[in-house]
Amino acid sequence: MGECGVGNNSAARLKKNIISTGLCSGCGACIGYCPYIKCYGERVAVIHDCKISEGTCYRICPRASTKYADLRKETFGSIELDMVLGNYEMISFARACDESIRRRGQYGGVVTALSILALETGIFDCALMTGGNFNGAKPIIAACAGDMLACAGSKYTASPNLSLFQEAVKKGFKNIGVIGRPCQVTAARKMQQVTEIKGEKISFIIGLFCMGSFSPEFYQFIKFKGLDKYEIMDIPGDVVFKRKSKETCLPFEEIREYIRDSCLICYDPLSELADLSVGSTESDYGWNTLITRTAKGVKLVEHAIVNGVIEIKEYPGKLLPLLRKAVFNKKKRVLERPDATYLKLSAREKEFFLVTGGGSK
Ligand SMILES: Cc1cc2nc3c(=O)[nH]c(=O)nc-3n(C[C@H](O)[C@H](O)[C@H](O)COP(=O)(O)OP(=O)(O)OC[C@H]3O[C@@H](n4cnc5c(N)ncnc54)[C@H](O)[C@@H]3O)c2cc1C
User: Fold this and answer.
1) What's the CATH code of the domain at 15?
2) Is the pLDDT of residue 245 over 90?
């Protein structure tokens, strides 16, 4: 018998342990691997029984048993770790040099600029990204600079981008990039562990910072409030909606209830397993915070700087303790939750957050 008395049938376990409990993050990974799992908008459903035990759908789910030490070892070659920020080589402020990218980007446009560069230099031949707008996110296989530019801007809902992995494979793409939220980054790392057919692979991962995404009901809320007429949404603290010269603002408390349950047990707000992670600076919204993590990530960023694709400046010393504190508190909150059972961490790591309470590492 498997977990919760549902046998070893993977789709049944996915349904019972992840989807029915509200723990599905809407990453989309399982959908691409199984004809019996579909997404309806951003809701995932198992539509037919499947007899396969230990199937890929459960294995790659970021909310099923996740051994971070193994994933870190696979990704970084060692488990040397900054327990708060994850493994990293460099943290800096960064922005795209191209003003048209900055104008379209959520903040400094670094994700868009680096994605286009990765495409042009053959690091990937397409990337799974999010098109549409905050009022209707849409997963996209972006295979040209124009597609990537059209994906600029944050949509604060799930957007199951990974559902398109197998479609990208069928279209003949061999090196597939993933741009996504931390749950999508974790799923992508798990997908890399699955023996892939014919050599197609996930070749590069850009992770976003993410303190939470909104459930599909959020779309109804913004429609009801007439906010769907706006073009841009941002959350610098309160929630801001903008169009041309018009702007309106809602207190965050008004939308807190729409945060997906799955995000409440997310231990990874900075996409720690990505090749590089990108977020806001929380101070200067024309710039991003950029964290380079793997050797591949460092190489792309160095190439981008030398070729005038992005510019960087020093991460202000006074901000680092604030970033650490926000991430430390988020991780501690998650570890205190009895429903965060998918997390498989070392006793040392748990102790760091729950007993010894931080420090610099
Ligand atoms: C749900 C969500 C929550 C976030 N929360 C935080 C936070 O708490 N703190 C913080 O500092 N930053 C957060 N971010 C990240 C931030 O909004 C920016 O995406 C990031 O700083 C990159 O900015 P940019 O100017 O380089 O992006 P751009 O150059 O505009 O590129 C944005 C990229 O994000 C991708 N994208 C957009 N929406 C989604 C989505 N729903 N799922 C997956 N990919 C998507 C697009 O494909 C595009 O490539 C969040 C992003 C999302 C999507």
Assistant:
1) 3.30.70
2) no
